[in-house]
Amino acid sequence: MTQQARQIPITAIILDEDIYPRKGVDPRRVGIFAENIRDGFKFDPIEVEHAPGMPGKYRLLDGAHRWSACKSTGKEKVDAIIQEIDGIDPLLYAAKKAIGPRQLTEEEARDTARRAYEKNPGLTSVEIGKAIGRARRTVDNYIADLRAVNQMGMDIKIFCMNRLGIPQDRMAARLGMNQKTIHNHLVKMAVLPKLLNRDLSQGFTVTQVAQKHGWTDPMVWALALEGKEDQDRFKELGWGLRTWDQWDFNDCDKRFGDDWPGRIPAQLIAHLLFYFSSPDDLILDPMAGGGVTPDTCLALGRRCWAFDMMDQSNRPEIEPHTWTLSSNGHLAWPVSSKTKADFIIFDPPYFNKRADDYDEKSISGLSKNKYLEFLEAFFVLAKQHAKKTTRIAFINADWRDFQNTPASEEAGKGGILIDDYLDILKRAGWQRTHIIQAPMSAQRFSAVVVSAMQKKRILGVTSRYVIVLKQSG
Ligand SMILES: C[S@@+](CC[C@H](N)C(=O)[O-])C[C@H]1O[C@@H](n2cnc3c(N)ncnc32)[C@H](O)[C@@H]1O
User: Fold this and answer.
1) Which structural domain, as residue segments, surrounds residue 337?
2) What is the mean pLDDT of the chain?
């Protein structure tokens, strides 16, 4: 909505280069304006908007030369209209204003078009063209290379999400596109893997092929291992298959999942998939963090729906969702789809651990009672949205208040033990079939801490358990 002009202090106004379409302020024009001001000539008000994140400051949308001239003549205030341009790209708004009195130069028009498109690839050439005073075809030429890279990036995202079995309507919502565009991309993309498969068949490694084509390693693994048995996939990935229920992995396999607080090894997820799911099953990870579950699902040929409260642009396959327990104990399921998961892998933040690493709405910041209440509500809800045959794997550890307390003096009362989780799971209608030990690494403790613990006879915790459950009755 356009506002009335107001007198605004010149010092409260900034020229933000990010949204300035010209190469710079022309001192000759400023000089002419300054002379006119001294002669008592009155100009149209300049246009500004509230500067984002800078309370009390305004950034210029139109009138950089008039504003500079006022400054140079020692004026303290300038007539300005404060615009609200919600939803309009400020660079394009400024460009449109600039073409009135003096066309943008070729270089300025090209640069503005590219900057606007880089910031918002959803803009069409017509929209950009209208703002900078150039024809659609000219804009097409200005941004052809950027559009090609963006198109490729989009193809890869769509390919990955499609592989994981994310429905097209959710892909469209996540990528800010319409469903028809997604559908058209998918039809065209049937040929996309051909180039990569050719490179793989010529002996290039997965990492080389991934780098060459700008894919992620897990996506190239999905192609390289297509049609193979699970056991052969393990061999090619270099993961020894554990036959017993003690899964001790020295380190996280860096090829799968991002560096993330509380990251778990891909090998752990792979073993869960091997023992408790079949190829093409739908896996659900409600708190997917750095994406180790979807990455491992790509390599082992499973579909995967992953959610997390953190919205990560580099992980379009992890759909943003914050599980929030309402005051009446209600928890919402993130999707309306009738399709149900075959296997749920649930790796929540542990109670009271790493609370500072996660968002303030993370369940790790809840009180002990609220944390347990949340888990119970989640397990009840998971059952309502499960098939009869769906299993769940719950990854957690004893939380004992052992900090600074010798083992013999630990009361056990203040903690949350695996037994407590088992009670909750039972009440929610899940029956344990396996408890697998998957210890955490003790490397994170320094020698000084270890020595202090030993002196005080404090017994630390590295045990971590994967509890696998099916539905009872
Ligand atoms: C232990 S991490 C998961 C790590 C993941 N398995 C990995 O290896 O990268 C737990 C995740 O739960 C998410 N989280 C915590 N509270 C949440 C909530 N209320 N809703 C959605 N996500 C939540 C955090 O953002 C975090 O990414």
Assistant:
1) 225-471
2) 90
